[in-house]
Structures are given as structure tokens and as C-alpha cells.
Amino acid sequence: MRILGIDYGRVRLGLALSDEEAILASPLPTLPRSRRSCDDFHHIARLAREHGVAHIVVGLPLLMDGTSGTMAAEAKAFADQVAHHSHLPVDLFDERLTSSEAERAMLEGNLSRERRKELRDGLAAVLILQAYLETRAQERDPAPNGGS
Prior knowledge:
Elements: E1 2-7, E2 12-18, E3 25-32, H1 37-51, E4 53-60, H2 70-86, E5 90-94, H3 98-108, H4 113-140
Parallel strand pairs: 1-4, 4-5
Antiparallel strand pairs: 1-2, 2-3
Helix pairs in contact: 1-2, 3-4
């Protein structure tokens, strides 16, 4: 079962796709936001159909104290519209620190500022989706409790 990950943004949407086993996330091309948001939702629904996606996860940009701010409210509304247009289940997943983690990884890779800008949203989507996949795997197969 493939899962599509989305890093919500006002200017661009970072996209990532899992493999068939829902173990590994890989980046897809970033989607520049359209002036008509319905175009974005139709693009995502088409992308999901083309890749056989069964589930979608949208990053939820909570504030550092865990509360919802303006961007979190926008991401929730966006996720609702994605679910409506794609007819697929959509989960929200806490994305705190994924953008800074993506930036740090790119700095360590000595990427230019322009190249980092190109890759940031896709890498953030990969980090969101990968964390979501790992959380799901842990919930399905909890680790043994140290010799009990």
C-alpha cells in the first residue's frame, strides 16, 4: 500500500511517496501552489490515482509548545479538502522540526542556498512521511519489553 506525504505550504507543496510496503519514503517533484486551490487538489488526487496511493498524510505544523497556530489551522483545512477531492483517508502528522532538520541535512551536504531552496519542501515531505511510516510500524509491531 503506497502512502503519499504532503508538506503543506502557502507557496509550494512538498510531496513524497512510500514504496509498496510502506517502509521507505522518496521525494516527488514539489508542486508550486496554483492561484486556484482546486487545481492543487485535483493534481493531488490524480497523482494519488496514478501511483496507486491508498492513504495520504499531511504534515501538521504545530507550534513548539504543541498548540495549533494559523498554519496548523490552514493545514487541517487543506487536509480536509484533500480527503474530499481524493476520496482517500488523510491523516495529520506532527511535523515540528522537519523543516529545520531538512535544512540542517542540506547544510551538512554543502548544498548552495539556491539548491537548498529547490529541495527543502520535498525533503521535508520525505521526513514527515518517513516518521509517519516508522510510527505506524512501531504501533503495528511494538518492540518486546526487554525480556518479559
